[in-house]
Amino acid sequence: MKYFLILFCEICLALMAGKGFGQPQFIHPGARWLDDRGLPIQAHGGGVIQLGDTFYWFGEDRSRENDPTKRYASCYSSRDLTQWRFCNQVLVLTNVENLQLGWVLERPKVFYNPVTKKYVMYFHLDGVLPGEKGSYKFARLGVATCDSVDGNYTYLKSFRPLGHESRDIGQFIDDDGTPYLISEDRPNGFHIYKLSDDYLSVARDVCLVPRHFEGGAIVHYGGLYYFIGSHLTGWNPNPNQYAQAKSLAGPWSDFKDIAPESNDTFGSQSTMLFKVAGTRSTTVIFMADIWKPRAQWDSRYFWMPLEIGGGKLYLPPPHPWLIDISSGVTKILSP
Ligand code: DGJ
Predict the structure, then answer these.
(1) Residue of 89 and 5 predicted with greater confidence
(2) Which of 71, 103, 106 to mutate to test ligand 1, by most ligand atoms within 8 A of the CB atom?
(3) Topology given in CATH for the domain delimited by 41-170
(4) For residue 232, which atom of ligand 1 is closest to its CA?
(5) CATH class of domain segment(s) 211-335
(6) Which of 53, 79, 119, 239 is the most buried (most CB within 10 A)?
């Protein structure tokens, strides 16, 4: 019954939406999201970039069929941020650093360098070396490159940025194209690093915020920078928080919850803030993961447009919604 009601509402909205939306497709936060093959999208802890009129979504591929000795990142493409075509398992990584069983490749993010014409993927590479105990001890950035956006990426190296531990990473490309990595450094807080000219290393630590946040994400909106991150609770959700600043270098404001604290970010964890600047409106999408640690292949996505501006932001409760890329206008299906 609920399904038919949603379908009915979708048809009504389709009729109301007019020509701007054509055939409207809804984004359903938390629902299973299928690609063009009818398979659940595998792009967890991911990031989206736009090249021309096409969006590319990269993330952890945790398909059950994957070889358990390898780690995978996949790429999907879309023109509307809603319907996604599977492109390729762009990175299939063997245990390149001699880590013990259970090593991880997490939160892959891809940058395009217009000068070298290379696609550069960063990811969190972790595990423990032989003889060590514990988990997540390696704490390094992994780098892989490719000549095409969805080709087969080649592993290049791993390193600690400017010598610092690096676990969760986030990607931020400023309006002028400058590329930054947000990196969680357990002893110190989180860093905002500017990448080097060739994008293959970190050039500068733009800011160290002495607060502990994972899933770090930044957007530049209305003359301010907004950061969102999650507390450190493993795979369990928590109330994600935000701060804002006039400059990436800070000072950053106090941190505040992005939604009522008791909701634990509606069970999700931040991964990216993505801006769609259309002809009528600029929308910032909160992109997050709903993790299922015991069934990672079935982890879900939580994408919702934020209410943002004047130094404040607010994550509305999840409902199906749609976006018109050219105008930037969104519509949330009211309950
Ligand atoms: C939270 C991080 O955000 C995830 O990427 C992952 O590293 C889990 N912790 C592991 O517990």
Answers:
(1) 89
(2) 106
(3) Tachylectin-2; Chain A (2.115.10)
(4) 1
(5) mainly beta
(6) 119
